[in-house]
Structure formats: structure tokens, C-alpha cells
Amino acid sequence: AQSVTQLGSHVSVSEGALVLLRCNYSSSVPPYLFWYVQYPNQGLQLLLKYTTGATLVKGINGFEAEFKKSETSFHLTKPSAHMSDAAEYFCAVSDPGGGYNKLIFGAGTRLAVHP
Amino acid sequence: DAGVTQSPTHLIKTRGQQVTLRCSPKSGHDTVSWYQQALGQGPQFIFQYYEEEERQRGNFPDRFSGHQFPNYSSELNVNALLLGDSALYLCASSLTLAGGTDTQYFGPGTRLTVL
Q: Which of A5, A17, A114, B70 has its CA 20 to 30 A from that of A84?
């Protein structure tokens, strides 16, 4: 069965610092991978996704993630944090061969950005 | 172009009651998935509707049921509410393609509180 582990339920960075949010997955086949962001009292917004092709994926708001099959990882990065990046971030996987692509989410990482 | 919409925004019920939540998918989408997000956790897949039928289901009891209408909108019904049903209920819409469903886009959610 597929699963997602997000290391660190809370991450705190200074404004302008590098953001690194970790995601590891367990799957019998290379999955599709997603990062979603959730602002307080809102739904989920897609940041980026990996399906096939280039393993370095660029998303919105300056975020990017790299799919590393050998490490079963899909870590999210941003070179310089902004105060507006403070939110909850969720990594998710879906099985491309399992049909209909239900998403399996990690527990989330809350990112705090301080001045 | 309207995104995914959900109603109501908030709902308070008592144990044993029944509740209906509603979702209108993004224009052009034909598939609706429902997720439950308990406080401090990642979303959990409840079920998915396509062509007015439940196509896939997560590990949720039969108290959770749904419906999809010809215009692709959907309802989530929960019977015999328990305190543990208190959560944010998220609707996601997508387009079903030959190889599965495309990217899921989420609505703002309905916050259900069971007293």
C-alpha cells in the first residue's frame, strides 16, 4: 500500500532563508507526486506535480521539487522564504496504474516564517 | 471561470443527526472526489464519483454515502453523526482521462462540527 511521510510537522525559517520541506513515499511503482498548500481556513491549492519526464518540477510562488526515485523522495524547496509562505504544506501521491488516481496525503508540515 | 465551490461553509450538528454537504466542480470537470480532514491531519479519501456512480471508495463506513447529479455536482451524506465526524470536508474535482483522472482541484471545504 502507498504511504507518505513528511518529516517535521513544524518548520520555522527566517524571511529570505531557504525553505526545505521533506517528503518520502512508499510505493511499489513510481507514483505521481504532488505538493499542495493550505492557508488558514481554506482548501488546498496545488503548488506543483510530478507525473513523468523531468524530475525537477517548478511550481507556483517560486517553489520547486525534485523526484528522486533512488531515495523515494520528493522534497519541496524555495530559495528565499517570504512571509506569505506561512501555511500548511501537504505532500500527496497517487498510483498511476491503480486507476482513478485517489490521492494519499502525508500528515502535513506547518511552515512558519519569521522576520 | 469559477473554481470548485462547496456549501455550506460551516455546519453544526448534534450526535445522531444526518448531514448533507454539496459540491459544484470546476467548469469542464466530470469527476468529484471527497476527502475528510480531521484537525491536525492530512486529508483522507472518502470516495469518488464519475458518471453518477461511486467509482472508488476509501476506508469509511456505510454511514458515508454520496450522489452525483447529471450536471456533475455532488453531495456527501453522513448519517448517525458521531463526535469523530467533526472535520473539514473537502471536495475535489477533476477530469477523467483514458489513463485515469487528471489533477484534482480542491474547494474551500465545509467545516462540520458535531456536538
A: A5
Best B44, B88, B97, B104 residue to mutate vs chain A (most A CBs within 10 Å): B104
Residues of B in contact with A105 (CB under 8 A): 42-44
Give whole-number Cα distances, A47 to A51, B21, B85, in Å: 14, 26, 28
The reply to whether residue B90 touches residue A43, judged by beta carbons under 8 angstroms, is: yes
Mean pLDDT, chain A, whole residue set:
91
Which residues of chain B lie closer than 8 angstroms to A103, CB-CB?
33, 35, 43, 45, 92, 104
Nearest CB to B101; choose among A43, A90, A100: A100
Contact flag B43-A103 (C-beta cutoff 8 Å) = yes
Give average pLDDT by consecutive 10-residue segment, chain B, 115 residues: 90 97 96 95 95 93 97 97 97 85 89 97
Supply A100's cell numbers. Answer: 482513478
Q: What separation in angstroms does the CA of A99 have from each of A28, A62, A102, B46, B100?
A: 15, 31, 8, 16, 5
- CA B53 – CA B35 distance, rounded (Å): 17
Burial class of residue A88 (count of CB atoms within 10 Å of its CB; 0-12, 13-18, 19+): buried
Sign of CA dihedral A68, A73, A78, A84: positive
Residue pair A64/A54 in contact (Cβ under 8 Å)? The answer is no
Residue pointed to by grid coordinates 467545516: B111
pLDDT band at A90 (very low <50, low <70, confident <90, very high): very high
